[in-house]
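Hello,

Following up on my earlier ticket. Below are the two sequence lines again, exactly as submitted.
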Amino acid sequence: MAAFASLDSQTADLIPPGKAHLRDSTQDAARSLETFLAGVERKAFRIAQIALRHEADALDVVQDAMMQLSSRYASRPPEEWRPLFYRILENRVRDVQRRRSVRNRVMAYLPWRAEDEDDAVDPIDLAVDKAPLPPAQLESDEAMAALEQAIAGLPGRQRQAFLLRNFEGLDVAETAAAMKCSQGSVKTHYFRALQALRAKLGEFRT
Amino acid sequence: MIGDPVEAGSSEFERRARALLTQSADQLPGAVRSRLTQARFAAVAARSVRAPSFARRWVPAGAAVAAALALLVLYVPHGRGLSENPVANAGLEDIELLTDNDAVPLNGDQDVDYDFYEWAANEADGASASAVGS
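Thanks for your patience. The regenerated structure is below:
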C-alpha cells in the first residue's frame, strides 16, 4: 500500500478543511481500487500475454486498462469493476492486434523492409540454459506451453470466453457483461472453445 | 468461486487447464511483477488527484452556461428600439428605395423620350429670344 503515502498530500489540496469524512471516503475508495487491481493484475497480464504473445505489449495493455478503469469508472460500484476491467482489456488487446495487422500489411509492400527491432531475435533468448529443470517442472512447463499455444489459436471470442470463465472465474453474467454479448453466446463460445482445446490437446495431464 | 457452474461441473480437463494457468500467473518473473505494481500505483494515483465527481461534472457545464450568457450580453442589442439602430434602418431604407415604383429609374435610359426634351429646350430658347427681341 505504498501508493497511499503520496495520496494524503495529493488529496489534501482538493478537499477543504473540516471535510474529514470526504477525505476518509476518498482514501477508502483508493484503497479498494488498489485491492481490486492487485487481485486481477497477474491474471490480466497472462490473458493479454496469451492473446498477444508479447510480454511488453501485454504489460502496456494491462497498464492502459488499469488507467482507464481508474480514471473513468472508479466511481462505479466495485461489483462492476471486474467485467468493466476485462472489457477494457479486451478492447486494448484488439487495438494492438489491429495495429499489428495494419503494420504487417504495409510492411509487406515495402521492398526495403528492414528487420523490425521488436521482431529481431534476442541472442540471449537463444542461449541454452544449462541448468536442468526438475522433471515435474519440465512436464508442467511443456503442458503450459502446449495449452497456451492452443488457447492462442482459438478465435478471439472463444479465447475470451474460455479465459474469463475458466481462468479468471467470472460467472456467466459477468462474462457476458465483459464480452458485451448475451449469456447464451457466452455458453456457446465457452463450449466451442472447450471442444477445440480438447481436440488439440486431448486429455492432457502431467 | 463457490456456486460457479464452471467450478461445480468442470471436467478434469478444465480443472487441469485452470491449475496450469493459475500456476503460470503465480510464477511471473520479478520484473513483470514490478512493472504491474508500478502500473497499479500510477492508476490509483491518477484517480486520487482528480477533483471530486460533483465538481468534475458541474464545472464544465457552468463554464458553458457562463460563456453563452456572455455572448448574449455582448451581441444581442437590448433596450434600443428598431428606429435607434442606424445600421438596421439603413438597410430597410435601401430596400424601400429599390422597390418604390414611383421613384426615378436609376438605369432607365431606354425609356427616356429625348425628342420631347429637345423640343422643350428649343421652345424655351425661342421664347426667350422673342422676349429679348420684343
